[in-house]
Each structure stands twice: as C-alpha cells, then as structure tokens.
Design goal:
Chain lengths: 300, 325, 430, 494, 300
C-alpha cells in the first residue's frame, strides 16, 4: 500500500468528525457540485506507463440516458485502484464495462475504447469468455447460484478446466473459501445451497467464487458492503495479497477502505471521472475541488 | 324443449340422412334434424336408451338391428320401432388407377386375407396364412405383395365385408362349410378372422384416407364404400369380384356379391310429439329422394327396386312397427 | 493457485486458452442447435401451411352461372307473393326453364336431367328468397347469378389446374360447360356463401359459419371458465397449500389429468352433463364444459410453473410492506406470472379448439344445417366440421376441408393474438 | 308431402296467440336483465359499504383506525349480497323448470296418466313445442292448450318472482352487512377467507374431475375384468379384439393382452418426445437467450400455432407424405431385408406428433427461462462462462420445475393423441420395438373401441374402459416418480 | 444521541488503527471467541421499562440448525437500537422475527415470545398484515418491485389506504423519496422501473418505500451498506429524525454508524445475544470480553 495505516486512519477520523455538522447544507451544496461536475474534466494522473487495462473516451448509455461520460483511465499492472463517488454516479456501470458485463443489459450501449494488455475489449470479434476469465468480477448484489456452496466455488474452475482431479478441485474450493474468510463458517455445510447463507456470507461466497478462477484483473463492486470489520479486514488482506500478482479495481463507499487498500483512487461524479491520483494524494491534497468536497464530506 | 328431430347412427348412412335432413329443413317450417354419426352400434345404444326428449328419435344402421339390441330397446321401454330399408351400399375392393385392375374372386379374398387358411398342400387342415403375394393365392393374379387397407374390427363396414366376402369365400371349401352346421363358432372363427401379420392393414374409418393411400401406393388394395369409388373414379378403380364390377346396376340387382342393406329405425313413441317426424319420413321415402333418379342416388345410395320402395313407403306411412327379426 | 512454485503452474489465461477452442465449438454447436430447432418448427409449419393453403385456397372461389330467369307465374304456380304460395312454388321449374333457354337443342329426358344438374339444388331457394324480398319480380325477367353443382364446379376448377377431372361428367355435359365458360356465363367468383352459411350436404352450399360460431360459443364457455379456475387452482396450490401428502396427491393428480386421453373426458361429460344433469346433446355449453375439464390441467400446470418462477424476494418485499397474502398474490405474483399463465391459456385453448374426440361422446359430431345463435343451440365445431368433411365422399369437400382448416387457423391466430399481445406487454426480466 | 303441412319456412315467428292469462311481456325478466340487475345492485352495495366505512372512519379519526381499507368493507358487503343471491339463482335455474313443469302436469285432466317419467317428459316437450309454435295445437288434445297458457304464465311469473326474491335478498343481506360495518370489523380477513375458499374450491375441481373419471371407467372396467382375467389383460402379449368380437364366443384370453398397446404407446410417445424435447427445449433456449426480441415476438406465437393445427391435418400429413417417404427410404436402404418395413409406421406417427407438441415444451420453457433472474446469468457470465454453459448449468437447472411441467404436458399430449396414430401408424397391435413397423396405442384403441360399431356390453367395448383405467394408473405412477425426481433436482433461486 | 459525535469518532479512529495489525491472529482468535460465545449469557441491560417490543427466550431454527439462541431483549419506545456482530451471527434472522418475515421461509421455525405493545406477535390467530404495517422492514438485499419508482413508494400507502387523493399520494411519494435522499436523482424518472436504479439508489428506494407507510417500528437491515458517506449521512439524519416518534432497530456492520445513530447497542455472536448496553457504554467500556474483542477488532 502506498499510504501508511497510521495516516489514513487519522485522515478518516478527521473526515468522520467533519461529516456530521455539514449535513444540513448538503442538498443545495450537492446541486452546486452536480452543476460543476457537468463541466469537469479529469484532473490528476489518469494514465500510467505499465497499464494493464486502459480506457479511452468511454461513454455509456442506458437507452437515451448517458450514465458515463468520456472517461480516460489506465489501470496499472498489479495495481489496486479504488473507485469512489456518490451513489448513482456510474461506478458500477463503468466497472461492468471492463469485462463487458454491460453486454447483458439490452438497453446499455458502450462507446469508446477499452483494452486489456493492448487487446481491444470491445472488438466485436473478441470472444468474451477468455476475457471474463482474465477479468473476473464480484457484483454489487451478491448473486450466488442456487447450487451448493461447493458447486458455487467450483463452477469457474470447472468450466475453465482449471482442475484435473476431484482432489485438485477440493483444494481450490477450500483455499478460495479460506482466503475469502468463509471456510470456517461453511466447512460443515459445503453441500447445502449457497442461497441459504446470510447476506455477508453470500458476499464472501461470491468473492471466493471469483478468486477461484485466479483472474488477472479482478473487479470488485463493493465487496465488503455486507461485511463486519473483521471479515472486511480479511478481504482487505486478501486484496493486498492478490495485488502482488493481480490487478484489482474496487468500487467502495468506504473512504477508509479505499485509503487502506488502494494505490490509486479515482473519483467519479455524475458519470464523469473527476480526479485520479495516488490514493495518498487524493485523500490528503486532492487536486479537484469536487474531490475535496466529497472526501471531506461536503459539497461546493 | 327439443323442437328438432334427432338422428344418430351409422356413418355409412350419415351422408344420405343429412341430405334428406337438409332438404327437409329448407323446404318445411320444421327445423333441420340433427344428424349424428356415431356408428351403427353406438346409435342403437342411444336409440334404445329409452323414450323421452333426451333420446334420439331415429337411428341409422348399415346392418339390420340385432336381437340383443332389440331386447335392450324393449327393456328400456322402446317397444314400437319402425324399420325402414332405404337402399344398398356396395363394398368395393379397389386399387390405384396406376396399377392393373384386379380380377378377384371371394375365394381369393378369403385366401389372401384370412388368418387361417386351408393347408395349400392339401388336406382338411388349417394353417396360418402363408401367402405373401397375390400370385401365391391364385396364379392368374399378378405377383405383387398382398397389402390390403381396410376398416378396423370396430367398424360396420368390416363386419359386412367379413360376412359377405370372406364368408362367401370360405364357404367354397366344403370342410369349412361343414362347420356352419356342426360348429357355428368354429365356422365364424375361420371365416371372420383377418390376418394380423401386416398383409391386412387396419386403416381407420376414414375412407378418403384409404383412397389417398392407394394413390400413393399402387401395390395396395383398399376396402371401402361405393360412394367413395363413385367420387374418386380418377384415382382408384374397383376390382372385379366374382366377375362383376361394382356399379349401380350390379349392386342393385345383386350381381355384385359384396353389398349390404342400409336402414333407419324410428321410435314410434316420439311421433307427433317431436315436430316433423312423419313429414321427415315422408320426405325420405319420396320418389324424388330415394327413387332411381332421386337425389340420394346422386350421393351414391343404391336404390331399391320400384316395388320394394312402394311397399316400404306404404308401410312407413302406416307406421307398421317391427314385430321381430 | 500461486502459493507454491507459481513459475511451473500455468496461468489461468493459459489454462483457459487450452480448452477454449473446444468450448467455442460447443457454444457454436449449441447455438446452431437452437437455430436448427427453431427452423424445424418453422419449416414444419410452413410445409403444413403450404399444403393447407394449396389445397384449400380453391374453396374460396366458386363457380356461378349467370343467366336470365323469368319469374313466370305459370311455371311457379303463383298468383301473388305470399307465404303459402312461396312455400309451394316451383322455383326449380324456372331454373330449368332458364337452362333450357341456354341450350334449346337439348332433347330427351335423360339429357335434360343432365342439363338441369348444372345448377345447384340451392338455386331454387335463392330465387325464392329473391322473390320474397322483392315481390315485384313476379312475372319479370331478370339476370341472376346462381350456384352450380359441385361436380361442375370441381370440373371447372380442375380445367384451370390443367388436369381435368372428367369422370363424373358426361361428354355432352362437358361440351355445354365449355360453351358456358367461353361465353362467360359460367365463371369463378368469390365464395361468400362459404362464410355465411352452415353445413350442407351439398359441397357447393356448405359453409363454415355454423361451425365457426359453434367453436366460438364453445370456446367462450371454455375460456371464461378454465382460465380463471385454472389460475385460481394454481394459486391455491402454490401459495396457500402447505406441502403435505395431500397437496402432493393433488399435484400428481393434476399432472395425471393432463395425460388422460381426451376421449375419456368425453365419457365423463357424457356421464355428468348428459346423463346426470340431463343436458341435451350437441350443445356448445356442454362441449365447453367438457373442454374446460380437459384444458384445466394444462392451464394449472403452466400457471404453477409461472408462479414458481417468481423470485421469493418479490414476495418478501410485498409482505414486508404489510401486504396481505391476497394483495401480494394479486398485485405482485400474478402480474409477474401472467405471461406464463397466458402461455398455458394459449396452448390449452389451442388444444380445445382443435379437439374432436371428447365431443364425439356428447353429440357434437353431427350434421347441423342451422347456424347456432347461442350456447344452447345445437352446434358443431370447426375441428368436427373438418373431421366430417374429410370423411365425406364428395370430391368438392376436399378443398373445403382445407379451407375450413384455414378458417380454424385464422380463428386460432385471432384468438391468440390478444393473449400474445397481453403476454408481450407483461413480460419482463428482472 | 302434403300441401297443408308445408307451412311457410321463413315465418317461424308467427306463433299462436291464444292466451287466457295476463302475462308480462315475454322475456321481460329474462336472464340478462337479471344479471345486469344483480351486477348493478352489487356495485351499489359495494359503494354503500365503502362510503359507510369512510363515515365510520371519520368518527374514529380517519381510515388509519379502521381495521381494513374502505375497499374491503365495500367488498364484504357486496359479497354478502351477491354470494347467497348467486346460490339462489343457480338453484332456481336448476329447479324452477322442474317445479313449474310439475305444476303444469299436475293440473292436467285426471284421465291423463303417465306410465313413466319419459312419457311425462315427452308430453312436456309437446307443450313447450306448442308454446313455441313448433307443433300445431290443432292436432293435440284440447287440454294441452290450457297447459300451454298455464306454462307460459307460470314461467313469466316465476321469472318475476325470482327477480324480486333476489333483489330482496341482496338488499337484505347486503344491508345487514352494511349495518354491521364498524371500525373493528375484520373485513379484509373475511374477504380474504372467501378468496381463499374460492381458490380451494377451484383446485378441488381437479380432484372431483379425477374422481369423476375414475368413477366413469371403474364400473365398466370391473365388468371387463369379470369377463377377462386381469392377469391376461396385464400380461397378455396379444391384442386382437376381432377374435372376441362376438358375444357368443368366449373372449379369447390371448386376445386382450394390453402389453402390445402399452409398448406401442411407449414407442410412439418415445419417438415423439425424442423429437419434441430437444427441439422444443432448444427452441425455447434460442428464443429466450439468443434471438433478438423481435424475432422472439414473432417466432414464439408461430410455434404455438403448431399446437392448434387440427390433428386431422397432421394425420393426413403423416399418412400421405411422411409415412411413404420413410418406407421408401428404408426400402431403398435395404432395411426391409432385416426388419418389417411398412407404409404405416410408428416412426411417421411419432415424428409428426413430435412436431405437434413442440410448442408445449418450447413456449412453457421459454416463459420459465425468461423468468430466471438476470443476476444469476450475470454471475456465471462474470466468471467467464460461455452463454451455452450459463444456460445449461445455471439457467436450465433454475428453470427446471417449469420445464418439466412443459415436458409432462407434452408427454401427456403424446399419450392422448389418436388421430395421427390411427392415420399413420395403423391400428394393428404389434409387440415390436421396430419403429418402421406399424403399432397402435392405448388411446387409439380406446377411441376406436368406444366409437366403433359395437355392442354395448361386449368385452370389446368394456376393454376400452379397462384400458382407460390402466392408462390412468400407469400415468399416475409415472407422475409420482416425476414429482419426486423434480423435487430432488429443483434449485430454488434467491 | 447518547454519545457525542466527537467521542465516537475518536473511538472509531482508534479502532481502525488497531484493526490491521491484529488481523493475522484472527483465525484462531475467532475460534476461541466462538467457543466462548457458545456458553455466554447476555450481560448488560437487555430489558427496559418502556418497552415497545420485547423478546423473551427467542430461538430460531433453520431446519435442524439453530441460528438464534434464547435471546431476551427489549426495544424501548422511540429508541434506536443497533445490532452488531460478525457476519452470519444471526442478526438478520433475529430482526426478521420481529415482524414475522421469517414465516416466509419454509424451514424456519421461531420459538419464544415476542410482543409488540403487549401484543403477542407469534399468536397464531394474529393477523400479520397490521403487524407488518406497524413494524416495517428494510431488507438487507435491496428488493425493489419490478414496477416504476413511483409505484414502489406508493405501494404501501396504497394498500394501507393512507392517501385519499392522487395529490396526497404524490406528496407522500415525494416526501418519502426526499427523506431517503433519492428525490433529486429520480424526480425526472419516477415512472421508470425501480430495478433500473444503481445499487445504492435501490437501497434508498427501499428505505423510502418503508417509511412511506410511517410504521411505528422500523427494522433496518444494513440500510446504508451500498451508500456513500453523504447518502449515509442523509439516512442517519433520517433515522435521528424518525426516532423522535418511532422505534428503530438497525443492523449495521459499521460500528461508527452504530455509535452515531443508536441509543443502545446489542452485540450478537454465533446466534447469542452477548451484550446489550447504552451505545456509549458498549463502545467505551463494554462489559463482556467478546464485545470488547469485537469492537476493538480482535477476538479473545
Ligand atoms: N434460509 C436459510 N437457510 C439456512 N440457513 C440460513 C438461512 N438464512 C441464514 N442462515 C444461516 O443462519 C445463520 C444466521 O444468518 P443471518 O442471515 O441471520 O446472519 P447475519 O447476522 O444477518 O449475517 P450477515 O451480517 O452476513 O448478514 C447463518 O449461519 C446462516 O448461514
Ligand atoms: N439497468 C439500468 N437501466 C437504466 N439506468 C440505469 C441502469 N443501471 C443503472 N442505471 C443508472 O445509471 C446511473 C449509474 O448507475 P450505477 O449503477 O453505475 O451507479 P453506481 O455508481 O454504481 O451507484 P451505487 O453506488 O449506488 O451502486 C444511475 O443514475 C442509475 O440510475
Ligand atoms: Mg453500484
Ligand atoms: Mg444479514
Ligand atoms: O358407421 P358404420 O356402422 O356404418 O360403420
């Protein structure tokens, strides 16, 4: 991590302290911020040298409505990038573009260029299967398959042929569940349906399911939203561990979490990428006033 | 309240009955009778169910009523029945016009279609039917596979065919004929049972389908009613049976051996209570309907001779009921 | 996993790549199989449609003879136009006079008879109706358009097809017809009678209206009973009934009812409606009731499947808002399950519309020459009409059979369109 | 035909008009008027109940303090009014004719006696027909004219009476319910109980039907088993009703063996399912998962038309086009040297039947597949599954109960189909597994036995009932198995 | 609120700081904690005088598996009670008992006594409809109806007859959406499907939907899990406002949030209610060692 535990923690504490008093002004302040965002261009360092994925001029539309506006961004090799921003600003939409999950929404249209290791992701001739095997995704709403817990985790390795023998598979399942911090809770009920788990357990199951495939890039949409601090810590530890070999994009609402786990942070507002910078910088001296307003808990 | 005549029964008589019903309905103040095609036996079952508005007034039949049916009628209070013989129907054996016309005898038919036939190598014993081609049956016939499409055992046409053609054929073997007096059941078993090894194909009750199947398969013969031959002369041709071809005249004068009488039966208890029964009877037995040149003959009914028409019409007018068979 | 000697271990991308070709191929095959399956269905439909239309299109046109007719009071035997005299008048006589005028050379009883047989026997009735509508015609000469006999019609149509069917018409008669055709007196025209009249023993006069209305009345009864009852039963079973042996039994029973041959439903109808309730035979109401019993399982099964497919979270959301069970069902489950239920209705009603066997038992396989006016009038239905015509000896019924099938399909498509339109509106993915 | 009898054909409305009683205009209180009246009253009572609850509510501080919504109070009052009235009208419609007829008959002169009910019925019919002008009154006994007038008057009065009764009852009971309305009245719960009862009633209809079916075949089946030993029927290998055609012959034990029929059913239904299940399922998958929305909107209804084409059409198609083609192909391949090749074949019937039942599977499956939440698909797609993998491994298992429902319906239809089999596979009961040979099915035999020329109590006819019963039991058993199999593999989403 | 903003914030900061270093011990530490929990009895003050809802000896089973063990708890009138505890400890299960939502899960069985204003909630004769109208619920996974946004919010008022006129309904919808902080974002698309919203928007929609009925007791299962800090603040503000008239039980994983919004806090572990106390006390001087371990981010 770029930023020391200490500092980020302090920072967050400050933020927490400043948050409450300003709430009353938010409504109008937010409107002002929204107006500003509409004309904003990205500040900071959206581009990097060793880009694993790079996006150029990405626009996303739901029907007539545009949800993401001309985003340029690189995600570096073995980097953890956090995406933050107010609810509904287009984080999930943008994240889902990276492995073409938006294909499944009929009215959703993506424009611009997205590439993975130089490979054009939106090439119409591209096979999305290896793409999605390389770019895995944890969805915002946990969506376990109505199958057993074991089968949920084994599903990815099975379809991609990652395990030769049953024992290998067992191992993959166990390790994945362990890394997601779920193993202890479910080891006795591996063959019961994944849909009978608690909210947080389902979320961890979905994480385990995704990492079982060992994708090169992992997209996580609020992976810890239903988790308690301990489980969250476990997942953050996992992220740190994974980032040694893999590239991770994580959407989170917890700025503390962003600060803890990410190297760079991207701030979105109303579908526009406002600022990208080193996490440390974003949380200490943001370049853009909107970013500052957001991380300090006010607008305008 | 029921204000129209209800007629049930034979599918063979159905076309004739409905012509009369329609003309009757259009020409008089009465409603057209409702004519149902239920099969002869099914018709009698309903007809003999009882007296009352829920039971039909008339039943068509492609055979005479059986004693058992009559008894059932009596048991249910249907005591007075008027029987009306209306004409004949020929059962034809035909094949596609694309094939050669066949000259068959009833004996040939029996040998070709019976389940058990007299041992070809002589003796008064019966063996499972060994014949594969018509030539095996009779050397004068062509060497084509025996393939006959006919009605299922549940059909009145089948009954008639078996009784008229098969029985006629098997009676030509004296030892079988002898059963007729000694062991009637045995006689019927031998003569009536058709082979089930695929040479005789039960094709359902739709005669048009048989015609079409013959058209598609020139090797096959089919058994069906005369009206279908009459209407499909461009597609199928009748075979000679015992030297005569089925035509109006040969059937009417009995030269063609495979023909059967057609009837209908009237419930006397309903006359006068259900409107129009008498008038309907009058229409049916009028010369313009069932006469030699009447509209029923257009439809393929083979008329009775003039004298019988006259006597029957008189009996109908007097509503003479059927005393016994 | 990358915990130990990750150098040896192939990466996911490599592993994926290994089997990718196979998976792609299988994906391709799968999709093609889907395409092929749809194609099979569509092609079968096309073949059947071309056959039906090819056979039946002819029935929509019919030969008519245009000729001069004199309403000659002498021949008619009328002095004035009133009901009694109309009923007794000899309209066939004036038709014959008209025909004789066209062919004055015809002599001899037999030949004349043949000549007269050009006109359908319904021609006289048509003239009677004309005169009844306009009594002033008595004594007038008018030119009229009359139906010709089915044999003539068949011959005329077969001439156009290039393969004349001559067997039922004599040489001399053919000459006359050819002459009429040449002069334009005999020509094909749209067959309105087919759509406006009931069944007839004469093909040229036989129409489909009686059976069409019969089907309409029957299906009105069926549709208005089986859909609500089926949906209600499905709701009860899915939402109210507790899982128990009894509900298992009911479920199995309903599935089983779907497998009961339809003719057995006819037996049931015979026993209950005719024998027990003493309802008359050949009645659309009874037919509708029997078909209701027959289609119920189809609708129940598909409705249950549709209800099962509604995600539990929707139910939870509704209940959590304080909706009662009935509100949850009526306001959330039902709208979401409606497409599936409508599919059941579409299929069930299609089946009911095409069914003959059970109606056999309750007297709807009948010749009924009058157009029914309500659900209690004797009537037959389209498939029965088709069945009866298909079994008729007259050649001219062949094309009418196919035409009737076309009418049935048109009826089916019209009936389904509403349901399909509704279903499309209600469909959504969540 | 005599001239006198030829009254005018199109003047059916000219009815005799000799009435002694004063009667209201005909049809004044006919069913439609009554229905409209009842509906209007019901609506009025609903509105009244609803507004009373609103009034009551103002007394206690607003609708919040009512036990239920005003709607339910209205509904409850309306139910109170309409349900008993409906029962009354139904009972009345069933029995009024009988009561009136009884009165009319009882007022006939004493010397008119009936031997049995059917004569009485005929006499009544005559009276009705005279009333409607279908029979001339001149030919009938004079006292009938009085009966006709009496009948007419009674009918009119009865209609009026029932209308008055119904109105009174609706007003009375509806009023009572209206009066009962108070904030504590558990109107919603009561309405919902009625709702649930109605639902229960509807689902028990299925049970009643089953009972009815069993009852209508059981008696005759027992009689059949009286004549033919049940073991011969169950295990006999030969089905040949022609040998038992006659009453005078002891039913040949070997000729009522149901095994070939069941084998034939299995063969044909099996072939049909081999066609329909893959095609139907794949079509459903293609339409719901791959095809463009517009394509689906057109193709799905088109496929559904397949289920509505009358079976006669399929029958002709199978018999005249498919069957000869199959035979010719088989013969040209020389298959006839090894096995029976006939122009009636199970294969032809099965293939065509398979096409007919495609929509049962395709449409129902399509609906349930469509109902699987998108998030499940997303889950699998996000892991890099191909579409076909998602469908096969996630969507289909989740949609399984519905799909099985469709398949069951299709199997059922295949078992129940007759026309195609009769026309294309023949009627010969052969015990064979050769699809090129002709076979027949249970249902076909039932139908031919039932509608053919028959004596009503020969074993031949009774066999139809026994077959029906057997089929019923066999399918019941199969359905039990299916139920448990589905339960086992069912995957409940969310 | 019982606890001052300042203090809670500091506390949380501390917690955050201490969290990371202890993570490595968690696995075994957690096992130890779990064992302890199995024999724990509730400490603190589970009962209050002016109880709005009170639970006694509540056991919940999923099939054979017990998920909640003999919980005794009171929720006071106009009180905000927070429920915290590790993922899978039974918080949602317990919460769902309070308005009998567990009835919908076939295998779920509830034992013990639960009463609302003295009314036995599990009385078999009780009509659950008014109960659920009085005790509203926001589910853990946002589950909007597949209907328009407007209809989603209007649904409750409609079925409970809270609005006479269209205009009244419009007002209810607008106010509810405004209070949930969603109005600005959706006011132009009120008649588009609620399922087409972003994760956080859906969550706020579900909150709006619930408060539109103004239930006496509101159960919220992680209502802010998908929300950014600003939206969260808005919801917290809403909770504070609602608590003046209503009673609220909130499940949350964010201890900061619990500290900010609640008067009392209940800590669950492995299906057992370990400790209930004033929020301030729980977060400063917890009575039970497990509670302390949890809020300080370690176990044992
Ligand atoms: N439908 C179910 N069937 C079987 N077990 C269940 C079901 N729902 C929950 N459980 C189990 O019950 C226990 C408690 O679950 P619950 O959902 O109450 O946890 P929770 O405290 O809400 O956790 P989270 O914070 O992760 O949402 C867990 O072990 C879970 O696996
Ligand atoms: N399927 C959809 N159809 C139409 N609009 C959509 C759809 N999904 C999202 N949107 C809209 O697009 C915008 C961006 O949504 P997105 O889900 O990307 O937000 P987000 O940043 O992930 O928010 P959150 O933090 O609440 O999850 C929102 O205004 C949302 O309402
Ligand atoms: Mg999102
Ligand atoms: Mg939970
Ligand atoms: O219907 P039939 O009895 O004449 O075969």
């Amino acid at each position: 991590m770029d930023i020391s535990e200490e500092k980020s923690a302090t920072l967050i504490a400050e933020h927490d302290r400043t948050e409450a008093p300003k709430m009353t002004e938010n409504t109008t302040a937010k409107q002002v911020a929204d107006m500003k965002a509409e004309h904003a261009t990205t500040v900071g360092k959206p581009l990097v040298d060793n880009a694993k994925m790079s996006m150029r001029g990405v626009d996303v539309f739901y029907g007539d409505k545009q949800a993401v506006f001309g985003v340029d961004l690189d995600i570096g090799e073995n980097e953890v990038i956090a995406m933050i921003g107010p609810s509904g600003c287009g984080k999930s939409t943008f994240l889902r573009c990276l492995n073409r999950m938006n294909d499944t929404i009929e009215i959703c249209q993506v424009k611009g260029e997205i590439s993975l290791d130089g490979l054009n992701v939106y090439d119409p001739k591209l096979d999305v299967v290896p793409l999605r095997a390389r770019v895995g995704m944890v969805f915002q709403k946990p969506n376990p398959f109505p199958k057993s817990i074991y089968e949920n985790v084994a599903y990815g390795p099975k379809i991609h042929g990652l395990a030769r023998r049953r024992s290998e598979m067992d191992e993959i399942v166990e390790t994945s569940l362990q890394r997601a911090g779920l193993w202890e809770e479910v080891k006795d009920r591996l063959h019961q349906p994944g849909t009978g788990l608690s909210g947080g357990q389902q979320q961890r199951l979905c994480i385990a399911r995704t990492i079982a495939v060992s994708p090169e890039v992992i997209l996580m949409d609020e992976p810890c939203s239903a988790l308690d601090p301990i489980a969250t810590a476990k997942i953050e530890e996992l992220i740190a561990e994974l980032s040694q070999n893999f590239t991770i994009a994580i959407v989170t609402h917890s700025m503390q979490q962003a600060a803890r786990v990410s190297h760079r942070t991207a701030y979105f507002h109303l579908g526009r990428l406002i600022e990208v910078n080193n996490t440390k910088k974003v949380f200490t001296t943001p370049d853009h006033e909107l970013t500052e307003a957001y991380i300090t808990g006010r607008f305008g | 309240a029921r204000d129209s005549i209800s007629i049930v029964g034979s599918s063979t008589v159905f076309p004739f009955s409905k012509v009369v019903a329609e003309r009757f309905g259009r020409a008089t103040k009465f409603k057209s009778p409702t004519v149902e095609s239920t099969g002869t036996g099914g018709g009698f079952k309903q007809f003999c169910g009882g007296v009352g508005v829920n039971f039909p007034d008339m039943s068509n039949a492609s055979r005479r009523i059986k004693q058992a049916e009559l008894d059932n009628c009596k048991a249910n209070g249907v005591t007075d029945i008027v029987e009306v013989l209306i004409g004949y129907d020929g059962i034809v054996i035909a094949n596609s016009v694309k094939a050669k016309q066949m000259k068959l005898s009833r004996k040939d038919l029996f040998l070709a279609l019976a389940k058990k036939v007299p041992n070809p190598s002589g003796g008064d014993t019966l063996v499972d039917n060994p014949y594969k081609t018509w030539k095996d049956v009779n050397p004068t016939l062509p060497a084509i596979k025996i393939e006959v499409l006919g009605p299922p055992p549940t059909s009145g046409t089948r009954d008639a065919f078996v009784e008229l053609a098969m029985e006629g054929g098997c009676s030509q073997f004296s030892f079988i004929k002898a059963y007729k007096s000694s062991d009637k059941n045995r006689f019927k078993e031998v003569c009536h049972i058709l082979r089930e090894d695929g040479a005789f194909i039960e094709a359902g009750e739709n005669d048009n389908l048989i015609v079409q199947k013959l058209n598609a398969n020139p090797n096959a013969l089919g058994i069906f009613g005369f009206s279908f031959l009459d209407q499909n002369a461009d597609k199928v041709q009748a075979s000679y049976v015992d030297g005569s071809l089925p035509t109006f005249d040969t059937i009417a004068d009995g030269a063609y051996p495979v023909s059967r009488p057609l009837y209908f039966y009237v419930k006397k208890a309903h006359i006068g209570l259900i409107p129009g029964i008498e008038q309907f009877l009058a229409e049916f037995t009028s010369e313009k309907a069932w006469g030699d040149e009447g509209y029923l003959s257009e439809k393929g009914l083979i008329p009775l001779d003039e004298d019988r028409r006259a006597t029957i019409a008189k009996r109908v007018k007097a509503l003479d009921s059927l005393k016994s068979l | 996993m990358n915990s130990t000697n990750s150098a040896e271990k192939p990466t996911t991308a490599e592993l994926v790549e290994r089997s990718l070709a196979k998976r792609r191929a299988s994906e391709w095959r799968f999709k093609q199989m889907g395409r092929a399956s749809v194609a099979v269905g569509i092609i079968a439909l096309l073949i059947l449609f071309t056959q039906i239309i090819g056979n039946g299109i002819g029935a929509f046109r019919q030969s008519f003879i245009h000729m001069e007719i004199e309403f000659d009071p002498d021949t008619l035997g009328m002095t004035e136009v009133n009901h009694e005299q109309l009923a007794l008048a000899n309209f066939d006589g004036i038709v014959r006079n008209g025909l004789r005028e066209l062919f004055p050379e015809v002599k001899g009883r037999r030949e004349k008879r043949e000549l007269y047989s050009i006109a359908s026997y319904g021609a006289g009735f048509k003239l009677r109706d004309m005169l009844a509508a306009d009594p002033g015609l008595l004594g007038q000469r008018v030119s009229v358009k009359l139906l010709v006999d089915d044999d003539v019609d068949t011959y005329v149509k077969s001439l156009r097809a290039g393969d004349p069917y001559e067997d039922r018409i004599s040489e001399a008669q053919r000459k006359r017809i050819d002459k009429l055709l040449e002069s334009g007196a005999l020509k094909l025209d749209f067959n309105t009678g087919f759509f406006t009249s009931a069944d007839s023993a004469e093909p040229e006069q036989a129409g489909i209206l009686g059976a069409l209305l019969g089907s309409l009345f029957t299906l009105l009864v069926t549709g208005s009973l089986s859909f609500p009852i089926g949906v209600a039963a499905a709701i009860y079973l899915e939402e109210y009934a507790k899982r128990s042996r009894l509900t298992d039994f009911i479920e199995v029973n309903i599935n089983n009812l779907a497998a009961v041959p339809s003719v057995i439903f006819g037996l049931l109808g015979l026993a209950i409606f005719l024998n027990f309730f003493n309802m008359p035979r050949s009645m659309p109401l009874v037919g509708g009731l029997v078909l209701t019993l027959m289609t119920l399982p189809t609708i129940i099964i598909s409705s249950r499947a549709a209800i099962k497919a509604v995600p539990p979270s929707i139910r939870e959301a509704a209940l959590g808002m304080g909706a009662s069970k009935m509100q949850m069902i009526l306001q959330h489950v039902l709208p979401l399950a409606m497409p599936g239920m409508l599919t059941g209705a579409i299929i069930g009603m299609a089946q009911a519309l095409g069914e003959t066997a059970p109606l056999l038992m309750i007297g709807m396989v009948a010749f009924i020459a009058e157009v029914p006016a309500g659900i209690t009038d004797p009537a037959t239905v389209l498939p029965v009409q088709i069945f009866l015509w298909a079994d008729s000896p007259e050649r001219a019924f062949v094309e009418r059979t196919s035409a009737a099938i076309m009418v049935l399909l048109a009826f089916l498509i019209t009936m389904n369109t509403l349901a399909i339109w509704l279903r499309r509106r209600l469909e959504r993915r969540w | 035909m005599q001239a006198l009898e030829r009254a005018c054909f199109f003047d059916l409305n000219a009815r005799p008009n000799r009435l002694e009683y004063i009667i209201p205009p005909r049809g004044f209180m006919n069913s439609w008027v009554l229905i409209v009246l009842m509906a209007a009253l019901c609506a009025t009572i609903f509105v009244a109940g609803r507004s009373r609850s609103l009034n009551v509510a103002t007394g206690v501080g607003g609708t919040r303090y009512l036990n239920s919504l005003p709607f339910y109070y209205g509904m409850l009052s309306a139910l109170w009014a309409i349900l008993p009235a409906l029962v009354l009208v139904t009972l009345w419609k069933i029995f009024d004719g009988q009561i009136i007829e009884h009165i009319v008959i009882s007022e006939l002169p004493d010397d008119v006696v009936f031997e049995d009910a059917s004569q009485r019925g005929l006499m009544l019919n005559q009276i009705y027909n005279i009333m409607n002008g279908q029979l001339s009154a001149d030919a009938a006994p004079a006292y009938l004219a009085d009966s006709v007038a009496r009948l007419q008057a009674l009918k009119a009065h009865a209609d009026l009476l029932v209308a008055v009764l119904v109105v009174m009852m609706m007003v009375g009971l509806g009023g009572f319910a209206w009066w009962r309305i108070n904030p504590q009245l558990r109107a919603r719960a009561q309405v919902e109980n009625v709702f649930q009862l109605v639902l229960l009633g509807c689902s028990s209809l299925a049970i009643l039907t089953t009972i009815g079916i069993v009852m209508s075949v059981l008696w005759e089946s027992l009689r059949f088993f009286h004549a033919v030993p049940i073991t011969d029927f169950l295990f006999g290998l030969e089905w040949s009703p022609q040998t038992a055609i006659r009453k005078d012959q002891v039913a040949g034990s070997s000729s009522f063996g149901a095994v070939p029929l069941f084998a034939g059913t299995l063969l044909i239904a099996g072939i049909a399912m081999l066609v329909a299940v893959p095609t139907g399922l794949m079509s459903a998958i293609y339409l719901s998962e791959y095809a463009h929305k517009k394509v689906r909107a057109i193709v799905k209804p088109l496929l559904e038309v397949l289920a509505g084409i009358p079976t006669v059409v399929y029958g002709f198609f199978a018999a005249i086009t498919v069957a000869p083609f199959i035979r010719d192909t088989a013969v040209s391949m020389g298959l006839d040297n090894y096995m029976a090749v006939t122009s009636e074949s199970a294969l032809a019937a099965g293939l065509v039947m398979g096409v007919m039942i495609i929509p049962f599977i395709s449409s129902l499956s399509d609906d349930v597949i469509n109902a699987v939440p998108q998030s499940l698909r997303d889950g699998a797609l996000g892991l890099g599954a191909t579409r076909s993998e998602v469908i096969r491994q996630v969507v289909i298992p989740a949609a399984l109960p519905g799909i099985v429902g469709g398949v069951l319906l299709a199997v059922s239809r295949a078992i129940g189909e007759t026309m195609i089999v009769v026309m294309a596979a023949g009627l010969a009961a052969k015990l064979t597994a050769n699809p090129l040979d002709s076979v027949t099915t249970v249902t076909v035999q039932i139908v031919t036995l039932l509608v053919g020329d028959q004596e009503f109590d020969s074993p031949k006819t009774l066999a139809a009932f026994a077959l029906g019963l057997m089929l019923f039991i066999v399918t019941l058993a199969l359905n039990y198995v299916a139920l448990h199999v589905v339960r086992k593999y069912r995957e409940q989403y969310e």
